[in-house]
């Protein structure tokens, strides 16, 4: 609980959220691979109402997700760091754990879209792996 915060690499964009995350997820979908330049995205899911940009004006890139609803990626126009993706279908932001001040205190609860992962992907031990998205998360 309490308030957590983070920022992009250059510090021009800052954000904060309050309350507990809904989920913490390693996503191995192709979009996340391209966006991060690695095998996965580590996202902390924060309900829309609990998240806000507190400094700067991030740019937005919108794509249509597998749900048919928009995925709005928000990134710093100066350093290019993606700070979060607004997942419209779920009503939450997937915050880039790498940009959080408390990144070291977090760990993933599940791995999703592993069917899209490259052969050299690395998985943490002891968490469930899903080929796509578990059905109870709404697709
Ligand atoms: Zn920046
Ligand atoms: Zn993904």
Describe what is shown at a glance.
This protein has one helix at residues 30-36; strands at residues 3-7, 14-18, 23-27, 41-47, 51-55, 59-64, 70-75, 82-87, 92-96, 110-112.
Number of helices: 1
Q: Profile the largest sheet.
A: 7 strands, mixed
Distance between the termini: 27 Å
How many strands in all? 10
CATH architectural category: Beta Complex
Strand order of the largest sheet: 6-7-8-9-4-3-10
Radius of gyration: 14 Å
**Beta-strand share of residues:** 35-45%
Shape: globular
CATH topology: Metal Binding Protein, Guanine Nucleotide Exchange Factor, Chain A
Describe the structure.
With 139 residues, the chain is mainly beta. It is globular. A 7-stranded mixed sheet has the order 6-7-8-9-4-3-10. Strands 1-2-5 form a 3-stranded antiparallel sheet, with no helix packed on it. The protein is built from 1 helix and 10 strands, in the order βββαβββββββ. The protein has one helix at residues 30-36, and strands spanning 3-7, 14-18, 23-27, 41-47, 51-55, 59-64, 70-75, 82-87, 92-96, 110-112. It has a single domain (3-118), classed as Metal Binding Protein, Guanine Nucleotide Exchange Factor, Chain A, CATH 2.170.150.70. The two termini are 27 Å apart. One zinc ion is lined by residues 27, 29, 31-32, 41, 113. The site of one zinc ion has 9 residues, from loops.
